[in-house]
Amino acid sequence: MRKLFVLILLCACFSRVVAQDIPLTKGWKLAIGDSAQWASPTFNDQHWAAVNVAQSWEQEGHPDYNGFGWYRIHIVIPSSLKEKAFLKDSVRINLGSVDDNDEVYLNGKLIGRFGGKTGDIVKGAFYGPRTYTIAANNPAILWDKENVLAVRIYDTGGDGGIYGTNFSIGMADVMDHVKINTEADFDYGERNSLSKSIKLITTSHYNYSGKLGFKVTDPETNSVLYEKTNDAAFSSAKPFTYTFEIARLEKKSYTITYTFTDDKSGKVLTQTETTPYLLTPYPSAKPKINGADVFGARPGSPFLYLIPATGHKPLVYKAEGLPEGLKLDAATGIISGAVAQKGTYPVTLTVSNKLGSKTKDFSIVIGDKIGLTPALGWNSWNAWGLSVNDQKVRTSAKAMVDRLSAHGWAYINIDDGWEADQRQPDGKITANSKFPDMKGLSDYIHSLGLRMGIYSSPGPRTCGGFLGSWQHEDQDAQTYADWGVDYLKYDWCAYSEIVPKPDLDGLKKPYQVMRASLDKINRDIMYSLCQYGWGNVWEWGAEVGGNSWRTTGDIQDTWRSMSSIGFNQNKAAAFSQPGHFNDPDMLVVGKVGWGPSLHNTQLTFDEQYTHISLWSLLSSPLLIGCDMGHLDRFTLNLLTNDEVLAIDQDALGKGASQYIKNDNYQIWVKELKDGGKAIGLFNLSDKYQTISLDKTDPALNGFNKFRDVWQQKYIITAGKTFSAKVAPHGVMLIKVSK
Ligand code: GAL
Fold this sequence. Notes:
The protein is an alpha+beta fold. Helices cover 16% and strands 35% of the residues. An eight-stranded parallel beta sheet has the order 34-33-32-31-30-29-28-37.
């Protein structure tokens, strides 16, 4: 142990360039379980297992473990840290990423906590990077002595523990108190220009004064398009705003680098962001019918379908061949009613406006299967986390019908955080005070032609610590039906308390129980299994009656998370079929936050094109996870490309398979109902790549039409190969046909 301290000290002395921080990447120990004594500096942790905090505890010998665990490290904090620092008032501790909630103790004293709706570590799910800043004169710090840092974790599901690369302790630097806030939307002007305002803000008492550098580069050529330096001064009372405009941009992303240099301290803070570019063509004023070609419902169940159509309003809707029991509202395009007879009913839909009319063949399939194409909708979790409420849901529904439902988006799903803490005396579940009237809310959502989703767990509690459906399955299914629920996400969570080490049958059981309950009610409820992919759920998700099943742990809004989930779906692809789809988790585009305060997704614009293209190729449910009350122009453009959505909604229901995989790029191919193929050429590297396929390659052989799906235009290709220049982390999505 002592040797380790010496080593840590040595590292600290020689690593001045790295802001003099002491790395905390090595020397951690882990124990699974929970005990208040483990916070204590005098607790003897010698028998605890050493752990590599580069990876989650699942990867460190605790597969599938959810619940409590503690990490401890012994560390000397030298006062030289303080002496060498420019600002001496606070100490900063970087704890990598925490999954999900944590409490941090320094020498037995609680110095920070994160997670939980009521400060209770079990309630919440606030995975993400963690940094704690405490006053340098906090008596918990023992300068020049051995300190024990103990981190109590509660993991609700999926990966758990503390992990990543950013583990260190140091003095909070001048720039630790500064934020370059780039949250504002870009404005799109003439001459392909973009403008925006950014802000320099601080929480420190220090007065900042220096220069703000602004530079725009083209990542394809590395050439500098714009470079400017401005004086910049700001304090906690008065932020600095910088507004810029850049013009004559091509249809691609550029990199903007902001560099603030503080005169007094000489410290520098740099931040980059990329610029958006729009690929989806502006919708025509002429009428057009979008969305899937089929819709399934069970005989006798309430039926609701809004015909998705674009074009100048007012639009007038017509449907020929509707089965008995259904009626269409010609002004809103909402088809409702119930059909008693099983069968496949071919329907001709027509939408007209003063510029003309358009028809589309559509099948209504009344039978045992629902969810014939993946769900398109919104879910509250990635945006609002447990802070979801009635108003936020209504805002989302209104935004969906105003801006998205014309493209087929239909579900408004409430995730965790709606449930009361206690059941009624008769065992009935009720909503908490944030949802005063569930039936009223679903009536409102249905009146817009949309459908409502809800969330629960087979366990006694949900991952957010609310009531689950354990031993109340029939009753809950009936309550959902009474409320008018159309979609249920059923999340394993505290079911681990009931069955801690399930075998395959044990994994299936709770989902079969709720399936049986859902089958007893007279309502079509899409059934979305959520258990993070355990037991290769894709192999049996359909057998237990799931319309979709999560294949992974929770997604985060980073390239690392999105790409490692998305590009690892090959194993599950073959199991995708109409009515039963793989779910690699919800979308991380737009403003996300998993709680009351939101931020722009950290995915670059090219990464977002990759995200939507890949999820569509995979036939994944597409559940928007952002604040729908604030859909910026890029996000809206990204989510309203009918040709991209048509790939997701293709009636064949196949999942794309990984066709070519190498270090720099991957090609994924999906067979489509019309005999064509959708092909994604993905650049996984940090540099522009030209990705080529020989036209005689089996993926392309026999096809002579190549369509750029995002731009919705045919590509003229001469020569023997098909080649595309693809941006870093970006995609070229094509459709080939004869
Ligand atoms: C997680 C689940 C998330 C979200 C959360 C709610 O287990 O994977 O998608 O539903 O629980 O607490």
